[in-house]
Amino acid sequence: MTINQEPLTTLEAALNARDVAATTSALRELTKSGELADRMASLTRAEARRLAEVLGDEALGELLGELDPSDAASILSLLATVDAADVLESMDPDEAADVAAEIAPERVDQILVEMEPIEAEELRGLMLYPPDSAGGRMTPAFVSIAPDLTARQTILALQRLSEQAETISYVYVTDEADHLLGVLSLRLLVLSPPETPIAQLLIPDVVSVPVLADQEEAAQVLTERGLLAVPVVDDDNRLLGIITVDDVADILEQETTEDIERLGGSEPLEEPYLRASPILLWRKRVGWLLALFLAEAYTGTVLRHYQSEVEAVVALSFFIPLLIGTGGNVGSQVVTTIVRAMAVGDVRFSDVFRIVKKELITGLMLGAVMAAATFVRAMTLSVGIDVGLTVAIAVSGIVIWAAVVGAVLPLVLRKLRVDPAVVSAPFISTLVDGTGLMIYFTVARLMLHLG
Amino acid sequence: MTINQEPLTTLEAALNARDVAATTSALRELTKSGELADRMASLTRAEARRLAEVLGDEALGELLGELDPSDAASILSLLATVDAADVLESMDPDEAADVAAEIAPERVDQILVEMEPIEAEELRGLMLYPPDSAGGRMTPAFVSIAPDLTARQTILALQRLSEQAETISYVYVTDEADHLLGVLSLRLLVLSPPETPIAQLLIPDVVSVPVLADQEEAAQVLTERGLLAVPVVDDDNRLLGIITVDDVADILEQETTEDIERLGGSEPLEEPYLRASPILLWRKRVGWLLALFLAEAYTGTVLRHYQSEVEAVVALSFFIPLLIGTGGNVGSQVVTTIVRAMAVGDVRFSDVFRIVKKELITGLMLGAVMAAATFVRAMTLSVGIDVGLTVAIAVSGIVIWAAVVGAVLPLVLRKLRVDPAVVSAPFISTLVDGTGLMIYFTVARLMLHLG
């Protein structure tokens, strides 16, 4: 794969020449071609150290912030302890905490010892919370002031504080014990007369998120209220950090990936695919696969039950995969649509009758088309008109059945407080396989006067 | 359903009593219980008019902005033309344009005539662009100033402009012909000495998005660069509007819904599920269903080809759904994981060998488990050890095959510039059905010395 060679050699050459501009442009090339993560994962110890030397702490910290935390962690681990500490210090604290969480504990301790005590303390604090909680997502780099300042004094204070802060769009007002008293927006601050006391400007009813809440809750608050940042507080309403709006896309991406993996019939991987070992993939898949196998095993019983019908008209067996496959396809179409509509809040249990009516009508129309297609297919296999009519009627029954089951099941599960995401495409296909066969052979018995 | 009755009567009662506080609290209750959209969709003409009267233009405009545009449009259509114009005027222009796009054209023209000419012109402009383009998403409510002001003059100007603007975090600098010259942040403005000329503060290299670009591009720029807003420009770099960060979640939700619907094997609905008519659902599903049917029809040919094997050992037919179903489940697990990993940029074509190796190892481990399970199941159906071994070997072959095909196919399609999202769970199940049967009967021929 010669295409990949060029930027790789360029980065190597740039590092060897200790050329800042060339290194930066090589990194930009790698980012553009989407190969940055791969290249970074294959850095040697010497290259990593030269990268730190050439870029400096700030630029390297920024680069690591763009990588997957575990890739960033492996690069940091290649550096001398003091350098790793400097780079971590230069990073956004929430990103630094994610990276530190991926480094071996004893190595982290060595690095933290080399950091400024305050920043090390901050990082230790952030590492206490689960990565997908509000506490794991928050940054302590917010701006807070005492309630007894004026607007002018606050703006002066901001000039000192703004460099360390991740956002100054909101300034939080706290008492000496860090209790959150209110918030004021930079906009309001700028547009008010300089001598206005802060106590007059602050908005006391601040929406906040508990530190142990799911990160999704913070994303929802930010999105629904159109905020740029939301404060994270402990049980005593003490301000611990903020989550900014630029985290929303990340949070939504993680949560959506989990939903999609569930819809595909496996447990969420919880890490990037290329990083997942075969053992992890196996563990996330085998449970559902066995559960579905047990459910599907029932089809064997059904078929043995109808053994005499199959023996009498072997042609019936030709259509087994076609009929249950079509049922599974319809079920999968319906289930993914309904589960997604539930996830975004478009649909809930009280809509069940409207949904069933809609899917019944759609199912009838789809069933008619599929019946015609199946009849034509049966004729091309020259199995006789009676078998052709049998499979045509059976397929329309299966299509309608699959559409209704696919629509109702997620709603009923939600009502029973089971996560509707367990109704994956494979789940509904499996369910329709066994029941579809019963529809098929019941129609066959009636039409072909068997049994 | 008595639970739903209370807030409904409350809203009616509040409207009849023309009680602002009670109406607001009834609306809040409906929002909390998730019934707001339903209730709004069932407003009568008299109720809608009373709602406008009680809430006033501003509050009603805000309420409509939270609804689905087509629901908002049907409420607006119930109002008198003058009132509808006032409410539209009070809304954020981008939201107003989305709503106006859902009203019948001749009715929109009547309403636009009643609006302030400038605002009507603005709305007409926004309605020109496709709703999923940057132009359809943008708001013209940005703040721009001439380059010859000082920081102090700019802040004074902001005090006048800020009410109409959606965000003042960034102030854009434009020449008389609206060409985008640069941007300055409110933060920088506040923290600079008052007499600094704007020309010294502005950042000339502004990232912008073309007006006809996909809205996803704007979301990517906002997310990757951590911006609060991105300017939208025409071919001549004239500033037309901005897209703010609070639109990102909306855009991502829309795009993800499309991805998920495709993975489920149908075309994206492009509207909320409850709003989609059965005809629309039918149209979005029937194409893929027929395509999959054609692909699956092949299984009939395969089975007819092996008819003598099935007649010799009818027990072989018992396992058809179980074997191909398991193959489909594995394929669906792998495909959804890989397609999602490609969508978020975790995986690309150059990773194909790593992916195949990973899936081969995982497939071997899964195949071993499924072979054991299948053998046990065969014994419970008392079909004999030779058939049991046949199905056990066949299932492990099918599992490995499904895992590899499911992993490679999306990558190859992307390489061929076909959207990998066409490889839905139903698609891979269908593909594995026909090929799985060939694996099954080939193993059967060899093991059972048939044919």
How far apart are the termini of chain A? 63 Å
Q: Radius of gyration of chain A over alpha carbons? A: 30 Å
β-sheet strand percentage of chain A: 5-15%
The helix/strand order of chain A is: HHHHHHHHHHEHEEHHEHEEHHHHHHHH
Give the strand order, joined by hyphens, for the main sheet of chain A.
1-2-3
Biggest sheet of chain A: strands, sense, closure?
A: 3 strands, mixed
Number of helix segments of chain A? 22
Largest interface: A-B, 115 and 114 residues
Protein structure class of chain A: mainly alpha
In short:
The structure is a homodimer of 451-residue chains. Chain A is mainly alpha-helical. The first copy, chain A, contains 22 helices and six strands.
Task: Please characterize this protein's 3D structure.
The structure is a homodimer. The first copy, chain A, is about 65% helix and about 5% strand. Chain A is mainly alpha-helical and about 450 residues long. In chain A, the strands form 2 sheets. A 3-stranded mixed β-sheet of chain A has the order 1-2-3. In chain A, α4 runs antiparallel to α5. The model of chain A is unreliable at about 1-5 (pLDDT under 50).
